[in-house]
């Protein structure tokens, strides 16, 4: 097990005449036995950060420590990747097709100087944990997707890594096994108290696995904290979108009331001068109802239903303020709504996020 400390880590790539800051002064700490998740857009610098931690990239600047030992420094790899005690898992979790599950798991141990008995003991131990003992003599094509996943995880864990690095580990899996794969990784991480860093563009990966999270955009760590805290209080519009669905709408604040079209919502928990803003409202913080009251929500005005469709267990409804059909809000509802009809819009005022013209939180 290891604590990871990253200080002002920078990696610059040259692309023709351009310099790309794939990591830009990133500082973070992952405590021993904890899981840290990083979410970011494509090209944000997620893989580069993991490769730096693994020792596969040399930092342009900055330092990486495992526990209190310096492993990477400016232009210098101090501890080789092979000696860092890490296991890195990529998107495809690929197993060698011409080897049995047993040999796949044993593979990382084969070029170490350990006896056959010792290898067998370790493979059995990890297979017990992952419940795949009964498929060890099968070939990858003979097992299910979920079992393949377990075998690949066993192969990553068989060397008792101090640190597990996961790069978009679930994006190639079918939706049906993705949730159980996430739960499995979370359980193993917790049971083994394995320091884990996961990067993904999918916030669901981060929510299901990481105790702490960070957001990387253009190589910069723009926000850090509990995933739910970042979800609720994103520092800017980009971050708010990376963490989940959100409606971003142009609005006006006047006398501490937010308005767009005929919709008005009191500004709660803060005071702002009269001005134009962008507001962010997540779909779960809005409801529509023909009632006049909904507990926990305020009645914000009349809207017209534009579209109602059924997606994965909920109805996705699009509504517009009756005064302005160019403004649209996406809502999730339990019941279908009839397009063309009018209803009341209810909002949780304390959940509204307010951004300035640059998209930064006010
Ligand atoms: N070896 C390299 N040479 C030049 N540029 C690179 C190299 N590796 C990465 N980059 C650039 O660094 C930036 C960050 O890339 P990186 O692969 O870390 O992003 P990412 O967040 O993992 O993206 P994705 O979600 O698409 O996997 C990108 O602009 C990429 O083009
Ligand atoms: Mg990547």
Concise account of the structure shown:
The chain has eight helices and 21 strands. It has 362 residues and is of the alpha+beta class.
Describe this structure in words.
The protein is an alpha+beta fold. It has 2 domains: 239 residues, 3-Layer(aba) Sandwich (Rossmann fold); 110 residues, RNA polymerase II/Efflux pump adaptor protein, barrel-sandwich hybrid domain (OB fold (Dihydrolipoamide Acetyltransferase, E2P), Beta Barrel). The strands form 4 sheets. Strands 7-8-9-3-10-11 form a 6-stranded mixed sheet, with helices on both faces. Helix 2 packs across helix 3, helix 2 runs parallel beside helix 4 and helix 4 runs parallel beside helix 5. The chain starts with a strand and ends in a 7-residue tail after the last strand. The relative contact order is 0.12. The model has no long low-confidence stretch (mean pLDDT 93). Bound molecules: adenosine-5'-triphosphate and magnesium ion (MG).
